[in-house]
Amino acid sequence: MVVKPSKADKKIAYDAKLCQLLDEYTQILIAAADNVGSNQLQNIRKGLRGDSVVLMGKNTMMKRSIRMHAEKTGNTAFLNLIPLLQGNVGLIFTKGDLKEVSEEVAKYKVGAPARVGLVAPIDVVVPPGNTGLDPSQTSFFQVLNIPTKINKGTVEIITPVELIKKGDKVGSSEAALLAKLGIRPFSYGLIVLSVYDNGSVFSPEVLNLTEDDLVEKFAAGVSMVTALSLAISYPTLAAAPHMFINAYKNVLALAIATEYSFPQADKVKEYLADPSKFAVSAAPVAADTGAAPAGGAAVEEKKPEPEEESDDDMGFSLFD
To answer: How does the record describe its quaternary structure (predicted)?
Structure first.
């Protein structure tokens, strides 16, 4: 005769298993398990078998085991898990890539009907078209203000209708109508809420960040540090180039306003003293446009003169 283990024995075995997993694994996914059936959970365990272990249990028991194990080992990082054990959650211990494991968990979703009293996780829209229901069923549509018409002895929905909004509770009429239409609008599975990695806890959205996202966020952080450094006049590596440029501008303005000068300001003073040097610099550009500079002076556009007037003014031919 096989003796069934008592509740105390089950608790001891569960505590030993949880402590063993905490020592063996450094990466843990905390996942919500609302509306997840036992068969579905078993399929998830099979899919993750090899480098991951799914552990479910009562929150009070998990918190107690984690707290006692942290005191026993002196590893207080385990205590970061305790605030995350809220609601119907489970722990996924893994040695694999966190992103890949999270994506694998998301694959195991099962469609479910809209049951009365459930909070809708998404908007439910009834598409237009023939429902296959006989005209005696129009009362369901009338109660929900869904426009219909009778087409070939069946009820047909004319336009798409938003039946349930996200966050609303499913009513009896909505649940009955969706059941008659054979629509299973919701899908449930383990949803990763938080990630524990060597004592650090962060949101699962971090797992989806790419290298481009990291570079963009780093550049944004450098810009903020630069702006703050310039605002409080505190030198940093990011703000140093801007500070040097601003200092050069200030010293240059002082040199131009006074007799003081330095090598980097001499050329600027030279240009300001003789503006014609700007025209010399612009001469090659003018040559490209067909205008010829004269004597280093500013080039003025000449109006073309008629050929006959030019011949009359000269008074002699080229062979004279």
So the answer is: P0 forms a pentameric complex by interaction with dimers of P1 and P2.
Please indicate, yes or no, whether residues 73 and 198 belong to a single structural domain of this protein: yes
Tokens representing 305? 């003169």
Residue type, 290: G
Q: Which residues contact 147 (CB under 8 A, 6 or more apart)?
A: 141, 157, 158, 159, 161
Q: List the domain range (segments joined by +) for residue 174.
A: 124-185
**Residues whose CB is less than 8 angstroms from the CB of residue 303 and which lie 6 or more positions away in sequence, other chains included:** none
The one-letter code for the residue type at 50 is G
Residue type, 137: Q
Say whether 318 sits in a helix, a strand or coil: coil
Q: Which of 132, 148, 185, 139 is nearest to 163 (CA)?
A: 185
> Are the C-beta atoms of 47 and 91 separated by less than 8 Å?
no
Full-model pTM: 0.59
Number of domains in the chain: 3
- The predicted model gives 156-179 an average pLDDT of 86
- CA end-to-end span of the chain: 140
Is residue 86 assigned to a domain?
A: yes
Closest-CA residue to 80 (of 190, 192, 194): 194
In sequence order, the 6+-apart residues with CB closer than 8 A to the CB of 318 are: none
